[in-house]
Design goal:
31% strand; 9 strands; Glutaredoxin; 150 residues; 5 helices; 7-stranded mixed beta sheet; Peroxiredoxin_AhpC-typ; thioredoxin-dependent peroxiredoxin; peroxidase; alpha+beta; 27% helix
């Protein structure tokens, strides 16, 4: 998994509207990338809505927000429209970004093992250096966790 001090990996994918988004777009910006397992599920909805509810505070701190999952563009679009998110959701169906960040991992649930996204938030400074990794995300307090030590 990506760690504090690591450089933002180069990536390119599409947002909920099918528009290309790439790592170079965020040069010189403080970037928060939160990885979530699946759009429109209870925990992911709580996390994404908490971030959206506090977007003005996050922007005041200079953060640009990106949510990322392996969902399709259409699933991301429905999720985005349903809750009126004020930030992009990235569709990483190829799991290329997930793998670069190390969040596509073997998980266990009710005795079954499967590959899935480990809910994680990465914060990068204006130079693209990872300054924090939040690996124990509290879905209903996601924004407060991002703002800690901001």
């Amino acid at each position: 998994m990506l760690q504090v001090g690591d450089q933002l990996p180069e990536f390119e994918s599409v947002n909920q509207n099918g528009k290309t988004v790439k790592s170079a777009d965020f040069a010189g910006k403080k970037l928060v990338m939160f990885f979530y397992p699946k759009a429109n599920t209870p925990g992911c909805t709580a996390e994404a809505c908490d971030i959206n509810d506090h977007i003005s505070l996050l922007k005041k701190e200079g953060f640009t927000i990106l949510g990322i999952s392996a969902d399709s563009v259409s699933a991301q679009k429905k999720f985005h429209q349903k809750f009126g998110f004020q930030y992009d959701l990235i569709a990483d169906e190829s799991k290329e970004i997930l793998e670069k960040f190390g969040v596509w991992q073997l998980k266990k649930f009710m005795g079954k093992e499967y590959m899935g996204i480990v809910r994680t938030t990465f914060i990068f400074d204006e130079n693209g250096v990872c300054t924090r990794v939040i690996d124990k995300v509290k879905t209903k307090e996601a924004a407060a966790q991002i703002l800690e030590n901001a």
